[in-house]
Inverse folding.
């Protein structure tokens, strides 16, 4: 198991505390009202958690990958909507960290880490989800800048964000090498947002369709032209570990609620947990949760130690997201009819967990990444 240093343990403890004291009491309200989790993000920003993943030189906390994972897990265990908005912010700021110029990093990252700026990551399109190379959004040179046209879909934080990192094709004939990234500041003319999507879960983390027909100066190009695909893939490797951590948080909350329920609920003359069939289910839930945690920590450690960690992040994201689906479903099953009503958070856990098998590449995409990487490594032996 990964050993955290004293500073990391203190930060993780603080994350668990704010999750219980501040985030958890607001989770049901965000879900029921479909209201953006603004207050929770502001609280996280004041405590420095908006930059928990960033180096200290850019205003972040400089935590290790495993420590970042534990913070994300803590937030998700209390309010998955807040965690979704937080990790979407991470995608945007990781884009700048990986692909931006030093000037762009200094201009955006310290304020983002302090919670003064909120970011959004715009890669997915209606006809280009799992394969970004199919994107249709275009960026064409126009004067001393760029004309961007196109539509992005399912963009978390988009309307609330102070900046959007948007990916577009600057060379339609160059495949992946023809993709570049741009920073669009809030209030830019020619950027329009749909109404918030009415999602099944994560209802306090709003997502939008974003249409652009705007002009941006050359300074808005993130890093170098043609490097957008490389940046996006690096960001998604990190993001998949965060989705695995988010999966752990939701699954942990559902499992702990089920332990409490099964040891308090009487069925006949025995506690629910005293029935062997229930014990088996609890054992399966625990085993999947522990396996997911170990795979996630392994991937988070690989993020610190390796230039490429696509295999580890895909394995962690695939297993943890599937485990969260299994654990939340069993939690509802063991709660019976009580799990199906909104008086308890169990049905929210089920709804919130479902998207995790789709976020940052579906489970099917993760299996493709895993298989192709394993086969490639085998062929090199």
């Amino acid at each position: 198991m990964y050993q955290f240093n004293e500073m990391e343990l203190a930060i993780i403890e603080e994350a668990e505390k704010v999750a219980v004291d501040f985030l958890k009491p607001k989770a049901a309200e965000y879900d029921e009202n479909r209201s953006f989790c603004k207050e929770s993000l502001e609280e996280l920003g004041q405590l420095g958690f908006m930059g928990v993943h960033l180096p200290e030189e850019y205003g972040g906390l400089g935590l290790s990958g495993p420590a970042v994972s534990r913070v994300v897990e803590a937030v998700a265990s209390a309010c998955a909507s807040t965690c979704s908005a937080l990790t979407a912010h991470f995608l945007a700021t990781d884009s700048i960290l990986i692909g931006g110029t030093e000037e762009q990093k200094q201009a955006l990252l310290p304020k983002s880490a302090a919670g003064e700026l909120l970011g959004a990551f715009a890669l997915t399109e209606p006809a280009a989800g799992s394969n970004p190379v199919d994107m249709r959004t275009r960026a064409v040179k126009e004067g001393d800048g760029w004309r961007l046209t196109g539509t992005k879909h399912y963009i978390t934080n988009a309307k609330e964000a102070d900046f959007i990192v948007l990916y577009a094709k600057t060379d339609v004939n160059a495949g992946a090498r023809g993709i570049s990234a741009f920073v669009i500041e809030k209030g830019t003319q020619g950027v329009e947002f749909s109404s918030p999507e009415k999602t099944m879960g994560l209802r306090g983390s709003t997502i939008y369709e974003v249409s652009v027909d705007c002009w941006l100066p050359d300074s808005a190009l993130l890093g170098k032209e043609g490097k957008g695909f490389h940046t996006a893939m690096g960001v998604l490797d990190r993001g998949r570990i965060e989705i695995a951590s988010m999966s752990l948080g939701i699954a942990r909350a559902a499992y702990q609620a089920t332990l409490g329920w099964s040891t308090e609920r009487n069925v006949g003359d025995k506690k629910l947990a005293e029935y062997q069939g229930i014990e088996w289910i609890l054992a399966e839930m625990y085993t999947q949760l522990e396996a997911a945690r170990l795979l996630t920590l392994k991937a988070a450690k690989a993020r610190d130690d390796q230039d490429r960690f696509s295999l580890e992040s895909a394995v962690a994201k695939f297993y943890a997201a599937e485990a969260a689906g299994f654990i939340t479903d069993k939690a509802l099953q063991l709660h019976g009819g009580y799990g199906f009503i909104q008086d308890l958070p169990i049905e929210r856990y089920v709804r919130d967990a479902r998207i995790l098998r789709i976020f940052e590449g579906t489970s099917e995409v993760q299996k493709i990444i895993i298989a192709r990487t394993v086969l490639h490594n085998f062929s090199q032996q």
Notes: Residues 120-228 form a domain with the Butyryl-CoA Dehydrogenase, subunit A; domain 2 fold (CATH 2.40.110.10). The chain has a mean pLDDT of 96. The two ends are 29 Å apart (CA to CA). Residues 228-264 form the longest helix (37 residues).
